[in-house]
Amino acid sequence: MDLEEIVKRYKKLGGEIETLLQDTDKMFDNTNTAILNIDEYQKYLLVYQSQLALEKAYGCMAELGKTTFIEGVLKKNGNGRYALGAYELSSGSPLDIWVEDEDSQAGGYYLFTRLEHREDYYAFDKPSLELEGRKARIRR
What we know:
By secondary structure, this protein is an alpha+beta fold. The protein has two domains: 3-63, no CATH class; 68-139, no CATH class. It has two helices and seven strands, in the order ααβββββββ. A seven-stranded antiparallel beta sheet has the order 3-2-1-7-4-5-6, with no helix packed on it. The longest helix has 27 residues, at 3-29.
């Protein structure tokens, strides 16, 4: 099986997971945990833990269907925020940042992450990475 076939399967599975996550949210909203017995409460907690993991997996699956919206170099603007061209980013903004890797045939790779802020902006998955002047892109 090749990469494109696997991507197709992930995209298809993503739709099913999206529905399951929505149904799970409804169940959480409509469940009074105070009346659950011990076994039911354990199942409830296991479903909760599963939902957290599925949300992360679903986020990755959703990324497979996106295409590049804007690409450029990260620069701080006059507001102290990073921007790609005229597109301003803020805390929580998802983006792909370029990470150099000499073992990669392309010399690096794009890492899907999000911008966060604590004293200054940083890439959530690589907080020590210098952002100014780094190649990045946003996909939708």
